[in-house]
Design a protein that fits this description.
With 549 residues, the protein is mainly beta. Helices cover 9% and strands 50% of the residues. The protein contains ten helices and 45 strands. The strands form ten sheets. Strands 1, 2, 38, 39 and 40 form a five-stranded antiparallel β-sheet that branches. A hairpin with a 3-residue loop joins strand 39 and strand 40. The longest helix is centred in the C-terminal third of the chain and has 10 residues. The protein is globular.
Length: 549
Amino acid sequence: MRLRFLLLGLVGLLAVLGMVGGSSAATPVAAGWGDAIQVPATTVLNHGDAQTSSISCSAAGSCSAGGSYRDASGHYQAFVMRETQGVWRNALEVPGTAALNNGGDADVNSVSCHRPNECAAGGSYYDGAGFYQVFVVSQKNGNWGKAIEVPGTATLNTGEADVNSVSCGAAGSCTAAGYYRDGFGNFQAFVVNEKHGVWRNAREVPGTENLNKRGDAAVTSVSCGAPGVCAAGGYYLDGFGNYQAFVVDETAGAWGQAVKVPRTSTLNKGGDAEVNSVSCGAAGECAAGGSYLDGSGHSQAFVVSETDSVWGQAVEVPGTSTLNKGGDAAAKSVSCNAAGDCAAGGFYRNRSGHHEAFVVRGTNGSWGKALEVPGSGALNKGGDAKVGSVRCGRDGNCQAGGSYRDGSGHYQAFVVSETGDLWLKAHEVPGTATLNKGGHAAVNSISCGAAGDCAAGGFYTNGGRQAFVVSSAPVAPPAPCVVPRVVGKTLGAAKKALAAANCGVGRVKKVYAKAKIGRVVKQSPKSGTQLNNGDKVALTLSKGKRKRK
């Protein structure tokens, strides 16, 4: 199994988002984040190593989450919890895993809810024979049922398997996917469907038997746009020993053939590509993101869109060719709120060797330019920020969360909100400054049940690793700075005009010019540009005509 994929499962997805244009006809709202709290009941359950791995919200104040903790015997157990009416209830060990997890290493990797109190979750456990097995568990009417070994994997799996992703197209109609090790010691990708509340038999992803010649494949992400209409993506090891990225679609409950992501044959000259995330805004209208290794041995980020159930050509994330001078980039998370309206986030390494977070918007199936997360430059003094979880709501606005390394070398968790086509500045998750005494925190997952009504979860360290959750409620965002025209004004008049437009004054310099002394002859950015509240505008003043000698 790929080492980096195993590490991904251990620490969860890290990172954050930033500013980028989008489209939304809804009234702008932002997420007003409350204080993060330790996951209720983990003070009793956890003995030094817990995290919230996944959150899914289906309505305002109605979410479910899952993760893992280490018990008093040093064994890892899987937990689930739910939020009702905006209040997080006590976490509990996943029902049924006490009987399954005799080897003491279980976790929940993914949770999905289609409507309040109707969810599904999946993960893995270590059985009494020393083998890793996969489980799924369903929630009905707010009550979690008993976890079961994924049907069919007893035949498929010879001792190392995991559920990486779960998605529900409707209540009682979900899909889970991941990988297993077959009888020849090869890793294969699988999918399993729930129909009418009953989990069917897992099966190898159709088509991967021909693609995965060297025996290392997995589904990393699955998303369902409607019941029985899903898309999934992952990676496989081809006959030449190169990792390739694949996508596969389900239509009317039947899985088609997996295919190499179109155009990655051209992009992936270095032979190391994978899909990290898939999201469907509607049936047959999806997007995926991941990474590939170019001919120079540099890792690059890619996105690819599906329209009318046909996957288009993968492209290097626009703008990252300029940002990624250090040659290490990836798209880690993708979210679509409607057909063709998506956002993706990831990381890149700049020319100084620092990892920075980026976000990019897709509208009508066309991807815009990636931008560094606004505000992350001030936060990320230690040079290691990554986007890991992005979630776009039905109103078209998105949220994200993740981590950065501060000037003291500590990792901190942060969140960022998009509203009215503008990403606001990223900020440390409220409350984690008090919680995170050990200096290592991150948001692993974020989800929104309504406009501005979201939840996020992850971990912090304080005498060991602890799990946290944090919730938000809709708030009116600060009015943006819409840059006015100040050319021709005096400095005093320009300052007043900028302040009235919610803008600040940036660098002021003087040049020889024909204009009267003290008048503004140039401004940057130009008038009409929309910025975050308080962002600064640089001014150039005239110091009169140059005198002739």
